[in-house]
């Protein structure tokens, strides 16, 4: 095990992609075995040393940024096992520091697919599981949760927990976790308000029929240190093509997104229209990209980005279905980008990924953090929620853009403040949006998680009682309360319980 | 205006593997793409056609699988594609290729402009375009970064130079080669892709070109002789500089000075 105390080295572990700058730690601990983690955590529990777990540091809510104590970096846990093939795909064991891009490439080489595709491909699988990461193709493949078959976790007591999906189901609201020490953790599942959306990264997972494993997915490192994960692999599609459809009005884009969503869910099927991802960019997003992408059509007021998978046999049919649909939409040919070769699809990916990069460049120049929302609402509430965004933003006079996962009714509003007053104004507006989303049965964070910077918004969802419930569950796993303090809920809720 | 664009299929990787026995490129399992510089040539041809009307024809010389890059350009909006494929052409060097393509131009006959990419990214010779112009006695403007004006009878274009650019004017027909600064190539369109899937390019062999002199092509007709091809070994090694940041920086500056880089 390595321990590094050089401030220059520690500094490299104090930031993620959130822009949170108050990171502070006395050392970085880099274990190489589970036994070393267990031993270190046990000792740290005795001396009540705060531990913050560090993976790829690609998160956007400062979940991996320590405020004191030590950093536990899992960087040496980077081994990827062999693929176990099954008739319907396969599975693979991965240590927590294996990068998402490594897993995806390994699966693809075996003609298999790891479904989740969080935007940040250098993120680690441990981080993906701890935050229940999602991404563009969540529309078809769901979040990381649906692809986790089991995991190994070291508790702050030094005990090891290995759990497979299906091994321990919630009974009478009690969750049971068998530890290698012979002891069982038994706790009542957290009593949290029921959401009307499936995509949620805010707080612990809790439903009456839940698998105990699901409590550990999306727990933001508050319950233990994930060291190894068993992941599900699916048969890879034979082919995929990307479309970017530009619309002369935003209303047309929103209507089309609704149709595609309905079709994919089988409510009002349109032949062949069932994409793997369905994303949206408004006019402000397109305007930010125009300097770098000169072929963005001038008349485009909004765009939908679509990825459609197909088999070898269905390729021609898939193309003609989309062609027919675009013809029905009356979208002229010059307002559609199409990409099928790897090289061309890379151009579309670059187009999509350029947006957050352009935003970050502006933010760096202005030296004010962007105010970025992450709310999802039930489908029936989506048009109303969009109207709330549009009215609030247009009346505010602030610079903004709206983009994201319209397939899951999950858009990101980014406000780019130029002054402190604008920043404060944007934060107040965000709180209003969050309230509206919660009232509509939605979540304040569908994919980014709560981390250390969104407690206020999460409180709107679950109230102080919800914080206490999460803190209660945390105490069952981490009695010394040393792991990832201040993630998900303010740490004084732990104090109230002691 | 009728425009002919010469295109080439190249492997989609910078890490080309060679068969140590034969010295030839291993093509099995390697994805092939349209030479990136040729995409700019196709795009420019399509833009001229959109402005002036006419027809864009792409021509490639290669094995039957090179039809795929023709289809790719059909998807972008090209009207017609011709594959030049014949066993007699195997092993042709740039001179023999240029001779062949000049015979293709003779057969096409009705064209006002020929466009090529500045070079193919596999051979990197940048010779074929100028050689075709020479064979056909066409005026040639290389490294075109912008077409300032074009009519049915003349073209004025900016030629990219290391220290600026030249403005050249030429009567048509002429041949130009283009650099990546000239435009941003379009993607295929959905309609184009559907057309391309069913599209069967014309295939011409040497017998289809009247007066074709077979003695000028193939391995035997090529003046270039390849004695050996190999992947060069990387010779340099990295060196880790120890010490804290300030010390290491000072050591590094010293080393750079030693090497007379600064």
What is the gist of this entry?
The complex is a heterodimer of chains A (498) and B (262). With 498 residues, chain A is α+β, with helices and mostly antiparallel strands. In chain A, 34% of the residues lie in helices and 20% in strands.
Comma- or semicolon-separated keywords:
heterodimer, A: alpha+beta, Uridine Diphospho-n-acetylenolpyruvylglucosamine Reductase, domain 3, Alpha-Beta Plaits, seven-stranded antiparallel β-sheet, 34% helix, B: 262 residues, alpha/beta, Rossmann fold, nine-stranded mixed β-sheet, 30% helix, 24% strand
Q: Which of globular, elongated, flat, extended, rod-shaped describes the shape of chain A?
A: globular
Summarize the helix and strand pattern of chain B as letters.
Answer: EEEHEHEHEHEEEEHEHH
Number of domains of chain B: 1
Strand order of the largest sheet of chain A: 16-13-15-14-18-19-17
The CATH class of one domain in chain A turns out to be Alpha Beta
Structure commentary:
The complex is a heterodimer of chains A (498) and B (262). Chain A is 34% helix and 20% strand. By secondary structure, chain A is an alpha+beta fold. Among the domains of chain A are: 153 residues, Uridine Diphospho-n-acetylenolpyruvylglucosamine Reductase, domain 3 (2-Layer Sandwich); 129 residues, Alpha-Beta Plaits (2-Layer Sandwich), CATH 3.30.70.2190. In chain A, a hairpin with a 5-residue loop joins strand 8 and strand 9. The longest helix of chain A has 25 residues. Chain B is of the alpha/beta class. Chain B has a single domain, classed as Rossmann fold (3-Layer(aba) Sandwich). Helix content of chain B is 30%, strand content 24%. In chain B, the strands form 2 sheets. A 9-stranded mixed beta sheet of chain B has the order 9-8-7-10-6-1-4-5-11, sandwiched between helices. A two-stranded antiparallel sheet of chain B has the order 2-3. In chain B, strand 7 and strand 8 form a beta hairpin. In chain B, helix 2 runs antiparallel to helix 5 and helix 3 crosses helix 4. The interface between A and B is medium-sized, with 25 and 17 residues.
């Amino acid at each position: 095990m390595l321990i590094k105390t050089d401030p220059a080295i520690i500094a490299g572990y104090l930031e993620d992609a959130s822009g949170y700058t108050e990171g502070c730690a006395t050392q970085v601990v880099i274990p190489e075995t589970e036994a070393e983690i267990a031993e270190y955590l046990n000792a740290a529990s005795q001396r009540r040393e705060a531990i913050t777990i560090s993976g790829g540091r690609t998160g956007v809510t400062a979940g991996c940024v320590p405020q004191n104590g030590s950093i536990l970096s899992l960087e040496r846990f980077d081994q990827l096992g062999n693929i176990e093939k099954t008739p319907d795909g396969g599975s693979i064991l991965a240590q927590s520091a294996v990068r998402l891009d490594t897993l995806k490439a390994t699966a693809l080489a075996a003609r298999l697919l790891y479904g989740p595709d969080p935007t940040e491909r250098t993120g680690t699988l441990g981080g993906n599981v701890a935050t229940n990461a999602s991404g563009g193709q969540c529309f078809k493949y769901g979040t990381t949760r649906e692809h986790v078959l089991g995991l190994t976790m070291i508790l702050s007591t030094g005990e090891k927990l290995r759990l497979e999906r299906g091994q321990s189901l919630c009974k009478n609201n009690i969750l049971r976790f068998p530890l290698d020490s012979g002891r069982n953790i038994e706790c009542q599942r957290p009593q949290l308000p029921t959401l009307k959306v499936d995509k949620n990264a805010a707080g612990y997972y809790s439903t009456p029929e839940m698998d105990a494993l699901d409590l550990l997915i999306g727990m933001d490192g508050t319950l233990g240190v994930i060291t190894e994960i068993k992941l599900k692999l699916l048969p890879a599609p034979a082919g995929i093509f990307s479309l970017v459809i530009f619309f002369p009005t935003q209303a047309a884009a929103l209507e089309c997104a609704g149709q595609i969503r309905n079709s994919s869910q089988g409510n009002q099927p349109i032949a062949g229209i069932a994409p793997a991802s369905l994303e949206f960019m408004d006019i402000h997003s397109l305007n930010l990209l125009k300097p770098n992408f000169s072929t963005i059509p001038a008349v485009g007021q909004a765009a939908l980005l679509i990825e459609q998978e197909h088999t070898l046999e269905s390729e021609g049919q898939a193309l003609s279905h989309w062609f027919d649909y675009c013809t029905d939409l009356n979208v002229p040919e010059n307002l559609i980008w199409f990409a099928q070769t790897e090289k061309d699809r890379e151009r579309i990916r670059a187009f999509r990924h350029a947006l957050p990069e352009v935003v970050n460049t502006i933010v760096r120049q202005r030296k004010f953090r962007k105010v970025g929302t992450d709310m999802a609402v039930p489908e029936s509430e989506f048009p109303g929620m969009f109207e709330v965004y549009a009215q609030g933003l247009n009346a505010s006079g602030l610079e903004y853009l709206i983009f994201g996962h319209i397939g899951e009714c999950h858009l990101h509003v980014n406000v780019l403040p130029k002054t402190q007053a604008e920043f404060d104004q944007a934060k107040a507006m965000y709180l209003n949006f969050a309230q509206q989303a919660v009232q509509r049965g939605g979540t304040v964070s569908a994919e980014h998680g709560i981390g250390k910077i969104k407690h206020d918004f999460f409180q709107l969802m679950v109230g102080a009682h919800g914080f206490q419930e999460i803190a209660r569950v945390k105490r069952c796993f981490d009695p010394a309360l040393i792991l990832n303090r201040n993630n998900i809920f303010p740490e004084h809720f732990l104090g109230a319980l002691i | 205006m009728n425009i002919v664009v010469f295109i080439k299929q190249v492997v989609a990787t910078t890490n080309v593997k060679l068969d140590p026995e034969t010295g030839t490129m291993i093509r099995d399992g390697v994805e092939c793409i349209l030479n990136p510089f040729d995409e700019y040539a196709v795009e420019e041809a399509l833009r001229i056609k959109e402005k002036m009307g006419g027809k864009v024809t792409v021509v490639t010389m290669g094995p039957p699988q090179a039809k795929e890059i023709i289809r790719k350009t059909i998807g972008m909006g090209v009207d017609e594609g011709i594959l030049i494929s014949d066993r007699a052409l195997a092993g042709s060097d740039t001179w023999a290729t240029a001779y062949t393509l000049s015979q293709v131009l003779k057969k096409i006959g009705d064209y006002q402009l020929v466009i090529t990419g500045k070079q193919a990214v596999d051979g990197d010779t940048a010779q074929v375009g100028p050689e075709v112009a020479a064979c056909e006695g066409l005026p040639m403007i290389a490294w075109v970064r912008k077409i300032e004006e074009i009519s049915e009878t003349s073209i004025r274009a900016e030629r990219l130079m290391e220290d600026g650019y030249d403005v050249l004017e030429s009567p048509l027909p002429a041949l130009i080669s283009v650099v990546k600064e000239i435009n941003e190539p379009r993607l295929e369109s959905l309609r184009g892709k559907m057309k391309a899937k069913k599209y069967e390019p014309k295939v011409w062999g040497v017998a289809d070109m009247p007066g074709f002199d077979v003695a000028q092509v193939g391995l035997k007709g090529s003046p270039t002789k390849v004695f050996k091809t190999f992947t060069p070994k990387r010779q340099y090694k990295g060196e880790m500089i120890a010490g804290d940041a300030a010390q290491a920086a000072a050591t590094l500056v010293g080393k750079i000075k030693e090497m007379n880089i600064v």
